[in-house]
Amino acid sequence: MTKSKIAISLPKDQLARVHREVQAGRADSVSGYIVRVLEEQAKCESLRELLQDLIKQHGQPGSEDMEWAERVLAPQQG
Description:
It is a single chain. The chain is mainly α. The protein has one domain (12-72). Helix content is 67%, strand content 0%. The protein contains three helices and no strands. The protein has helices at residues 12-23, 30-58, 63-73. It starts with 11 loop residues before the first helix and ends in a 5-residue tail after the last helix.
C-alpha cells in the first residue's frame, strides 16, 4: 500500500489518548492508531449500509425478532 504523509491537528485530550494507546502497546504508532480507527469506521459504515439494505428488502425487525436477538447475543453469565 502506498502511503502519504499528512499533518493533522487533534484536541489535546484526543492526542493524549492516542499516545496512551501506543504506550500500552495497543497501537504500534500514532499513524497505526489512526489507520486502525479509520478502518473500524469504514467497517461500521459498511455494516450500516448492509443493515439499511436488509431493512429495505425485508422491513424492520419485529419485537419477537428483537427479543430473540437480545437473548442470543446477550453476554453469557459465567
